[in-house]
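Appendix C: a fully annotated inverse folding record. The material below is reproduced so that readers can follow the format used throughout the book. The structure is listed first as tokens, followed by the designed sequence.
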């Protein structure tokens, strides 16, 4: 049986699970974990993936289940909720710092979303100043809108000439 500090313990276990695509971040850093509830030796974790078709979703679920079972929880449920949708605004300050330390420019803040239909823009998104995570220069250019993960773009610093990834604002 799990002690009466299970909620805190389960939350601590969940807080250590890393993102399968960005292993320098935990799911907590990324803002994917929405809640952790315990009832004796049962735990329910609620997550919101970075987007509904996230290829790492099953790996996240498996990692959460494995870590919680190893911590003594017999019944582990991982629920996925898609509303409200995940936003890069949910990345913690620590997560943003870790991205920059690993050479990935963190996203700007998006701010509150409008209710109702999502407008469709057929033009490329407006460009914002993306600082180089290595030298801090604002003189960077987009090389490819698509990086190794669907939430990143490839950029190059024109000052230090180093390539880097930028996490797109969502």
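Designed amino acids, in order:
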């Amino acid at each position: 049986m799990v002690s009466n500090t299970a909620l805190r313990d389960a939350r601590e276990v969940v807080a250590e699970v890393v993102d399968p695509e960005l292993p320098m971040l935990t799911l907590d850093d990324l803002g994917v974990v929405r809640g952790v509830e315990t009832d004796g030796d049962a735990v329910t974790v609620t997550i919101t993936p970075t987007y509904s078709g996230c290829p790492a979703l099953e790996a996240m679920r498996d990692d959460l289940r494995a870590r919680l079972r190893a911590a003594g929880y017999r019944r582990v449920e991982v629920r996925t909720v898609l509303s409200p949708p995940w936003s890069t605004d949910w990345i913690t300050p620590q997560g943003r710092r870790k991205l920059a330390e690993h050479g990935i420019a963190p996203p700007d803040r998006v701010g509150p979303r409008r209710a109702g239909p999502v407008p469709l823009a057929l033009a490329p998104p407006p460009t914002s100043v993306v600082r180089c995570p290595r030298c801090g220069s604002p003189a960077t250019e987009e090389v490819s809108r698509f990086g190794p993960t669907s939430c990143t773009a490839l950029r190059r610093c024109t000052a230090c000439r180093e390539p880097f990834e930028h996490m797109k604002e969502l």
